[in-house]
Automatic annotation (TrEMBL):
SUPFAM superfamilies the UniProt entry points to: Phosphoglycerate mutase-like
Protein name (database record): Phosphoglycerate mutase
UniProt organism field: Seriola lalandi dorsalis
Enzyme Commission code(s) on record: 5.4.2.11, 5.4.2.4
Top-rank lineage group of the source organism: Eukaryota
Keyword Nucleotide-binding: no
Family in the record: Belongs to the phosphoglycerate mutase family. BPG-dependent PGAM subfamily.
């Protein structure tokens, strides 16, 4: 029997989602479509009568902005929002800023799928020669983390995302859920996928085929041991959700040259 409810949300479309580039730890705001996705998500949750007690986000603007817009649309702006780098998107290392479709043409779709979707393959690390290195590591937000800046990732596999996320989940998020609070985690495609893998016991092979579209809330109903009692529910118009999933899956495919 369901004892707790947890909502996961991949932030609305960002500017670089639109350009099909690896955004990762570069701080991008939502695109116009992303703003609308977040507002639509909030309206849907309000219509369905959901109320949040606490929201967790990463420290990237697109995750925080999504949470704000959802709460505003629900008329729940007062709900506390707690931020942590441990919910950040996966660090794509040297791939940050590159276009997925162009990479598929250069390296092949299988290699890009491995980089994007495999569980334990880490992309090449970012170094100081990378055009976005200083923009990321000189950002004041990374001086606020619970580890020294030098210990922050330079690239991550999905496994490494789960490794840095789990201590936060166990020590900060779980106690709030156990108090009976309804929690929304407004994060990123890979931090949400990593958490789903942990909660649902998804295999390392099968996690590659789990796709979360932007701006679609995922409802998990959990038992007293925080294990799902039924399959995850993606809330909203199911035909639109399937189209959005296909759009995400197509991002790593080579575009035919005209």
């Amino acid at each position: 029997m369901s004892k707790y409810r947890l909502f996961l949300l991949r932030h609305g479309e960002g500017a670089w989602n639109k350009e099909n580039r690896f955004c990762s730890w570069v701080d991008q705001k939502l695109s116009e479509d992303g703003v609308k996705e977040a507002q639509d998500c909030g309206r849907l949750l309000k219509e369905q009568g959901y109320k949040f007690d606490l929201v967790f986000t990463s420290i990237l603007s697109r995750s925080v902005q999504t949470a704000w817009l959802v709460l505003e649309a629900m008329g729940q702006e007062w709900v506390p929002v707690v931020k942590s780098w441990r919910l950040n998107e996966r660090h794509y290392g040297a791939l940050i800023g590159l276009n997925r479709a162009e990479m598929a043409l250069q390296h092949g779709e299988e290699q890009v799928k491995l980089w994007r979707r495999s569980y334990d393959i880490t992309p090449p690390p970012i170094d100081e020669s990378h055009p976005y290195f200083l923009e990321i590591y000189n950002d004041r937000r990374y001086a606020t983390c619970d580890v020294p800046k030098d210990s922050l990732p330079r690239a991550e596999s999905l496994k490494e995302v789960l490794d840095r996320l789990l201590p936060y989940w166990d020590s900060i998020v779980v106690p709030e859920i156990r108090k009976g609070r309804t929690v929304l985690i407004s994060a990123h495609g890979n931090s949400c996928r990593a958490l789903l893998k942990h909660l649902e016991g998804i295999s390392e092979k099968d996690i590659a085929n789990v796709t979360l579209p932007t701006g679609i809330p995922v409802l998990l109903e959990l038992d007293e041991n925080l294990r799902p009692v039924k399959p995850r529910q993606l809330l909203g118009d199911q035909a639109k959700i399937q189209a959005a999933i296909k759009k995400v899956e197509d991002q790593g495919k080579a575009k035919p040259s005209n």
